[in-house]
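hey can u run this one w/ 3-(4-hydroxy-phenyl)pyruvic acid bound, need the structure tokens asap thx
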Amino acid sequence: MILADSEIATLKATKTIGIIGLGDMGLLYARRFSQAGWNVCGCDREENYEKFSAEPFEVLKNGHLVSRKSDLVIYSVEAENIAKVVKMYAPSTKLGAVVGGQTSCKQAEIRAFEEYLPEDLDIVSMHSLHGPNVDTTGQPLVLIKHRASDASFNLVESLLSCLNSKHVYLSFQEHDRITADTQAVTHAAFLSMGVAWHNNNQYPWETPKWLGGIENAKINISLRIYSNKYHVYAGLAITNPSAHEQILQYANSCTELFSLMIQNKGDELRRRVFAAKQAVFGKLPKDHTLLLDDNLLQQYSLSKIPPEGKQPNSHLSLLAIVDSWSCLGIVPYDHIICSTPLFRIFLGVTEYLFCTPGLLEECLEDGLSKTSFRQDDLNFVIAAREWSSIVSFGDYGLYKDRFVKTQNFFMPMIGEANKTGNEMIKTILQRVAEREGGPVAGQE
Ligand SMILES: NC(=O)C1=CN([C@@H]2O[C@H](COP(=O)(O)OP(=O)(O)OC[C@H]3O[C@@H](n4cnc5c(N)ncnc54)[C@H](OP(=O)(O)O)[C@@H]3O)[C@@H](O)[C@H]2O)C=CC1
Ligand SMILES: O=C(O)C(=O)Cc1ccc(O)cc1
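ok here u go:
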């Protein structure tokens, strides 16, 4: 429960909030909390101490110093390191404090808290379902009351209320299942596009094949992911066991649909894809308005080449996501309350392809009869399988290596892609907010 203003004022005067890990998300939280009038302290690795001298909150040298004086400690470190970091600082936690974390998959985080924190401490965890450069307003924020009194939970919820996000209450198990369905498989699709373009040695904005609104969304989101830190995507996929199954299903769906195309098994392909369409989109109301359309996305192009009419495209990446949702029994709309901006965009372009009259039929026809996309699709299948293997091996080193190679390939365009991507996301989020009647989020 968010407390009354007078009670929040008392908490602000008496409680100290500690953030361990002042990277992108930790810094966002620490700045916002201190701007809202909370007493905040934080730390990063000791060797980074000097970097934070201009911050408006107290910066300490390490997590022991943060833990011993904070009434609420939030760990905002790499998922890969969470157990190690919690083990290190947990014994220094102040008596009676509440502890939480921001990692994207909660199983490893909660396990670390249970193993290393003294039993008398409360655990309330959280997850902002957006990146550090998105306005927090109206975005989903998951709150997990794992082991806590109402007073502890109210402290956490009242503190987080300054972000103006939409609070979603889940257990850690529900959180991990939903984010595997939404985030992990979304990232797998866009990561695979990047690797496929890289392996084909082509910048998609340089070839007339990739023109049009849907292609702009694919390119901008893929490059946005490759502009980020690899550990964010590695952590949320590798530490979440449900994500392994989803990503494998995605790779299998890509393989099987592509196999049907190259064998020219049109009837089987259509049967399978239309059954998936029915499972995923069948219950949408007749008057359902599409979130996205090709015209809206047309303006967000990185290409200098003027559009020259429609190019044939099988849209294998989009066919495969609907097929995998269908095979896994996932209805993505059930998770919309817990969706990230990238997931909404992925769902938006997929919905556009599947629900615009005639478009799905056209792309299946292209997939079966045109060969111009075969090489791209083959590379896409290989990339999806590669990501699935890397995630299932749980190998962060391999993940980093694969990610960074493709990141380097796209480096010359990352700055411009982020600018265009930010504009695109801003427009889409405004549209989401208008549609849902909630607060309008902008870009920071
Ligand atoms: N970025 C995003 O879009 C989102 C990320 N998350 C999750 O939030 C968490 C943080 O992500 P993000 O901020 O992006 O990542 P960053 O890499 O930017 O931040 C993590 C920070 O923690 C520091 N750190 C590592 N070990 C310690 C330690 N022992 N003591 C103090 N600081 C330490 C890191 O230092 P160093 O770099 O030197 O290792 C780094 O500065 C991750 O678990 C991520 O999955 C959640 C929502 C969105
Ligand atoms: O929107 C997305 O999917 C992002 O890529 C940003 C992101 C990354 C990690 C999270 O835990 C939450 C959001």
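The longest strand covers residues 140-147. anyway lmk if its weird
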